[in-house]
Amino acid sequence: MMKHLLISAALSVVLAAPAFAADVDTIAILTPEQGSDYGWNQQGVDAAKAAAEATGVEIIVAEGLGYGDVRAPMREIAADGADLMIAHASGYNTAGPEIAEETGVAVAIVDSPDALVPGKVADYTLSGHEGAYLAGRLAAKMTTTGTVGIVVSGEPPSWNSQSAGFAEGVKAENPDVKILYSVIGPAAYSDAAGGNRVTTSVIAAGADIIFGQGNGSSFGMIQAVESNKATDGSDVLFIDVIGDKSELDKGHLLTSVLWDMTPVYTAMIEDLKADKFGTHGYSISLADDSVKLVKTPQVDEKAWEEVMALREQIIAGDIKVEPKFEAEDVRALVTVAE
């Protein structure tokens, strides 16, 4: 399959189960990096495979496509019979709708919630803001320097909502804790060197807990956390997002705001079958565990119990955490922005 695809990317076809839906037989997911990053790409690929298995359809996995023009591979995948293409990168949200219009194949994109086209284009700009809020509460409980940092590889809506949620959680727990905010670059998702450099500077400015959002650049953030001490001499801790890097941890991972996109992709497939695709967005939440915190050995037990009690209050509606998708909202919440 796809013998003539002239790109440097890994493509695989997995038969999840015998197809039973005449209108949706095959889905595809396209990712900019390999689906082995313990983050955005891996969670997307794993969720798409799980959704395909749950709905009995085939899946094409096209990974490592980069952040450039993906029109050619999308055309190839459409020609190979995909009924739905999940364009799993914000940089694909221009090409995606164009290819949907050109080929008639439904496309799901991110970070363009106003781009919905019934039957053709759906958006799944997800927000783990509830989990990020809890991570902020945890960070404020456990900081010893009284300063925490947020380091991001860009300012897409999903990152902004989590940065804002984290900052709100810190402030709710202890308004005296300083929050430093640094952006590696406008789209520095795979810039590990930049992640290391910026995180090192944030640690030097006093942060002993880093909330990092980066994709590939997260590995640079982790390197900085592992190789630098906090200004009070304590170990620096890292809060990750989307994936679970526990098996790589060397004693610095505090938690991760874990995303499970399986319910989202499953709903997309069912919507396409029911002629509802492109009529609404999708979400993840604490209530169904599609957003949750990862517990690691570095977490203080008492602090964890308190945070889990806060989780129940959010689910019950006693604590309201609203998503904020604009960068200026984030900057208004932090102490210092760079």
Automatic annotation (TrEMBL):
Q: Which family does it belong to?
A: Belongs to the BMP lipoprotein family.
Q: Tell me the compartments it is located in.
A: Cell membrane
- Indicate how the chain sits in the lipid bilayer: Lipid-anchor
Q: Name one GO cellular component term.
A: plasma membrane
**Name this polypeptide is given:** BMP family ABC transporter substrate-binding protein
Signal peptide extent: 1-21
Keyword Transferase among UniProt keywords: no
Q: Which domain of life is it from?
A: Bacteria
Report keywords, A-Z. Answer: Cell membrane, Lipoprotein, Membrane, Signal
Q: Where is the ABC transporter substrate-binding protein PnrA-like domain?
A: 26-322
